[in-house]
Amino acid sequence: MNGILLVNHFLNNGKFNELHKHLIGAAKKINVNLVLKTNLELSLKPEAADFVLFWDKDINLAAKLEKSGLPVFNSSKSIALCDDKARTYIELEGVVAQPKTLAAPKSYFQSDMRCFVTKAVEILGLPVVYKECFGSFGEQVFLCRNTDEILSHISEKPFILQEFIAESSGRDIRLEIVGGKCVSAVRRENKNDFRSNVTNGGKMTVYTPDKNEIELAVKACRHLGLTFGGVDILENGTVCEVNSNAHIINIMHSTGIDIAPLIFDEIRSRLK
């Protein structure tokens, strides 16, 4: 089986390169020939393969590859739903429990959002979590204790305001789902930040999820159309975020479970 590992041309540093190298090595061990290509390369010249492992968020390119007949994992639709935090919330609304969330109205430039923010605070309470709709590793996420703090973060970029779950401050669990099954789970805890992300200083420990947590994560991934994904669940049993290409190296170091070959096995089964 011949595949393409699609990565972003402009993310060329240690942790990304380590992940890409690991994916290629894991594929080789199970007789999958995986060739690395960047989104810049494939945007200029198409390549033939049995599938594309799309480890990026270049949604337009993913859709273009799908239209050419290439199977893409995860799909362009799934990546788009996970990449935009507002779309993730809306897609999962009524499907799984989530913190109360309000998406800011669309604006074409930096605008006066005071009216929206004031009303949102009345609904969500304070403190409130401010999140830009597009971002990874807990970046562009802030805990705001008053209206002025919220307004100080607003730019021309779309954002959501989310209910702060105090009992989960600095803590959550990450479940890795592949092919509708939970294959790995960790508890993440950060004693110095309300964000549990490892990038922000959080620590991972092996975690055994219960039946309800597994069902919640599997349901979220299934509804978003994910072949594989990482689901973050808060202490009150609500889904905080869903990742279409979670960074699997940290989880492997924590649990000893390598998710990469499981992803390739699932792709192989779907191509039969």
Tell me briefly what this model is.
36% of the residues lie in helices and 25% in strands. The chain has helices at 14-29, 39-44, 59-67, 76-83, 85-92, 114-124, 147-153, 211-224, 248-255, 260-271, and strands at 2-7, 33-38, 51-54, 72-73, 101-103, 128-132, 141-144, 159-163, 171-178, 181-189, 203-206, 228-233, 239-243.
Which terms summarize this structure?
272 residues; alpha+beta; five-stranded antiparallel beta sheet; four-stranded parallel beta sheet; 10 helices; 13 strands; 36% helix; 25% strand
Question: Could you explain how this protein is built, in words?
Answer:
This protein has 272 residues and is an alpha+beta fold. Helices cover 36% and strands 25% of the residues. The chain contains 10 helices and 13 strands. The strands form 3 sheets. Strands 11-10-9-12-13 form a 5-stranded antiparallel beta sheet, sandwiched between helices. The protein has a 4-stranded parallel beta sheet with strand order 2-1-3-4. Strands 5-8-6-7 form a 4-stranded antiparallel beta sheet, with helices on both faces. Helix 3 (59-67) packs antiparallel against helix 4 (76-83) and helix 4 crosses helix 5. The protein is globular and about 55 Å long. The model has no long low-confidence stretch (mean pLDDT 96).
